[in-house]
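Researcher: I'd like a candidate sequence for this fold, 170 residues long. If you have to choose between options at a position, lean toward the conservative one.
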């Protein structure tokens, strides 16, 4: 999101908007915090599903396309920030990295719960599985946003089904 677009959306000039923050980095971190809140509200219903595979499926279903359902016109702000900040240094990148690490741990925890309940193989590498789920999410995001593939949802769910099939107990 540009400063000009954000200022227009909240009814301020760019300088008026910027006056509310000590730096551009503070503004960017606050935008990420705002997006985290929207994201958490969007995926919260998934945690009402029964533990294990039902919860993991519900979670991925809420994760895919969450930003558009929340009315964020630029798509997932985390995906955008990842590509924008991958070569940067500083507090915004540090905040994003910490968030990504916490996110990966949470997804891994959902996978580990499915393993513990016998829904997925005992020898499954939960970290690798979570990494592959993230790849499905990013591919879905690119297909949905950049190439506007009308089959993005179907392809993401097919990839999820294939990943789950490969992880089920024999």
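Model: Candidate sequence:
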């Amino acid at each position: 999101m540009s400063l000009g677009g954000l200022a227009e959306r909240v009814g301020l000039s760019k300088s008026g908007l910027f006056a509310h923050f000590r730096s551009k980095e503070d503004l960017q971190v606050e935008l990420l915090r705002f997006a985290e809140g929207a994201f958490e509200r969007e995926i919260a219903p998934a945690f009402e599903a029964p533990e294990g595979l039902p919860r993991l499926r519900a979670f991925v279903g809420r994760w895919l396309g969450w930003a558009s359902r929340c009315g964020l016109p630029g798509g997932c702000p985390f995906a955008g920030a990842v590509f924008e900040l991958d070569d940067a240094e500083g507090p915004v990148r540090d905040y994003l990295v910490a968030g990504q690490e916490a996110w990966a741990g949470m997804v891994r925890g959902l996978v580990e719960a499915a393993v513990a309940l016998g829904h997925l193989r005992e020898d499954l590498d939960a970290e690798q599985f979570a990494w592959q789920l993230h790849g499905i999410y990013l591919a879905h995001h690119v297909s949905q946003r950049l190439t506007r593939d009308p089959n993005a949802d179907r392809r993401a769910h097919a990839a999820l089904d294939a990943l789950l099939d490969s992880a089920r107990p024999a």
